[in-house]
Amino acid sequence: MLMKICRAIVFGFSCCWAMMAAAAPLEVVEDVNQIVISRGQTPVLTYHKAEMPPPPGETELFRRSGFIHPLHAPNGDVVTSIHPADHIHHMGLWHAWVKTKWQGEEIDFWNLKGGRGTVRFVEVIDRNSLGFKVRQQQVALAYEDRAETVVLDETLEVSVTSSAQANVIDYTITQTNVSDAVLELPAYRYGGGITFRAPETWGEPDDSYVTSTGLDRTEGHATRGDWVVMHGPTEQGSASVVIMGHPTNHDAPQRMRIWPKGKVFFNYAPTQEFDWRIAPAETVVLRYRVVVDSHRLVSADVAPWWRDYAKID
């Protein structure tokens, strides 16, 4: 017990030190296809401006831009995957609305194979020493006699602090309904908020979920949580990914989509319990923080990070 207490104190001190210290020198490099953030020679994340083509033999509807992959642990290990065989539309670290109604039609910006909607990168608004701000769009695609229409014009702001202890990514979504119709968001089990797909090596029996209320993967789905920590094997050992939802988010603490078995997937779902709507010209903001560590974390390890993010004394 004493060793566990000491470990929690030491880890908490190192976390707080890393948060208070100036950000480690980062390189934010952009080309025509992507934005890559690195700490020295160690990559942190890659954001895709260009559309990623689908796997061989799959429909072109799976083409998509505007997502992060790979996301790395502080030692460089990869902690995301894209185009898994069971869900080809899963794209590392991303977001999109799933069950929506717009102009009397059901529009799905998430399940790309349906051909009703997609998410696209549009332009870089800002790039600085800590990250970037990009413009994206959630688009209702052309079908039957309906023209392609931008429904949500959004910005994604990504700000990074990186050290040997942890990579910390602030992920802020600002969405404005630029159409002439209300975007209805009926209650649904997933979609909308930040979403994470782990490497295919993360899965039973070698993975773990623990929520802020102490629930595991078999109990955590559809519960509310300030944060979740997940871990799995990597090339150099193991890594953990913590995802936090900001207390000011809509319906916070938001309910979570957690797969009770199989591979590792996570989504904060702002409309899992209640309907929502975004009126024409209305703007909404969703804020999340991702912490990636090159060790297997437990709840006590996450507490200092959460206190800093939520500004809890």
Report strand %. 35-45%
Low-confidence runs of at least 5 consecutive residues: 1-21
| Strand line-up in the sheet with most strands | 8-9-10-11-20-16-15-14
Report the count of strand segments: 20
Number of domains: 1
Mean pLDDT: 92
> What is the overall number of helices?
3
Give a short account of the largest sheet: 8 strands, antiparallel
Summarize the structure in words.
This protein has helices spanning 2-20, 217-220, 299-310; strands at residues 27-30, 34-39, 42-48, 67-71, 93-94, 100-102, 105-107, 117-128, 131-140, 149-162, 167-177, 183-185, 195-197, 208-211, 227-234, 237-245, 255-258, 265-269, 276-278, 283-293. Helix 1 (2-20) packs parallel to helix 3. Strands 8-9-10-11-20-16-15-14 form an eight-stranded antiparallel beta sheet, covered by helices on one side. By secondary structure, it is mainly beta. The protein has one domain.
